[in-house]
Amino acid sequence: MDVLKSFEDEKNLVLEKLDLLYESIQSLHYEGKMSLQKNIRVIYGIVQHLKPILVNHTNLDEEVIFPFAGKHIPILEPMINFLKAERNEFNAQLESFEVLINEFNHGTDNSTNYMLLEKLCDKGTYLVCIVRNHMQAEIEGVYNVLDQRLNLFEKKALFEKILQCECAINYIHRHNEVTQ
């Protein structure tokens, strides 16, 4: 089904951005003062690019895909509940990471900045890991199951629901912007 396959492009984009985020965090940690501001700008830019992708994806899941999956394949409910809880955790971590970036940008004391730098690197690394883990669980635990268990009629119904959802329009629009 095209919609489920289109998540592959989104996954690849997010993984690419997560790799870049991880590399930038490592650079921030090891390159020192010379590249400090450049690395912070890169990290901030990546986070700002990832946020709308994650928000649109979350909305699509919560408004369309998860309810549809729960109705048509009830055995997925525990996995869906787990993914929702995990998503709350990474949203909180993302917000905390942004706060640390802002604190770091406005810090003036070198000893305070060093402690913030360590926290920023640790939090960023954790954020990359939790998002990667979440994506893998979502793909294997929900999307692949939908692809395997839904019949053609149900897949068509899911596709139509996705196309009717405003968050899907945002997703498709953003997806087209990114792939062009």
CATH architecture: Up-down Bundle
Order of helices and strands: HHHHHH
| Global geometry | elongated
Helix content: over 70%
Structural class, by secondary structure, is mainly alpha
In total, how many domains does the architecture comprise? Answer: 1
Return Rg in Å: 18 Å
For this structure, the CATH topology is Four Helix Bundle (Hemerythrin (Met), subunit A)
Overall pLDDT metric = 85
Strand content: under 5%
The biggest sheet amounts to: none
Number of helices: 6
**Low-confidence parts lasting 5 or more residues at pLDDT below 50?**
none
**CATH homologous superfamily classification:** nmb1532 protein domain like
The CATH class name reads Mainly Alpha
Please count the beta strands (DSSP E, at least 2 residues each).
0
Please give the alpha-carbon distance between the first and last residues: 22 Å
Task: Set out the fold topology.
Blueprint: H1 2-31, H2 36-72, H3 77-106, H4 110-149, H5 152-164, H6 166-179
Description:
The longest helix has 40 residues, at 110-149. α1 (2-31) packs antiparallel against α4 (110-149). Helix content is 91%, strand content 0%. The chain has helices spanning 2-31, 36-72, 77-106, 110-149, 152-164, 166-179. It has a single domain (2-179), classed as Four Helix Bundle (Hemerythrin (Met), subunit A), CATH 1.20.120.520. By secondary structure, the chain is mostly helical. It is built from 6 helices and no strands.
Describe this protein with a few key phrases:
mainly alpha; 91% helix; 180 residues; Four Helix Bundle (Hemerythrin (Met), subunit A); elongated
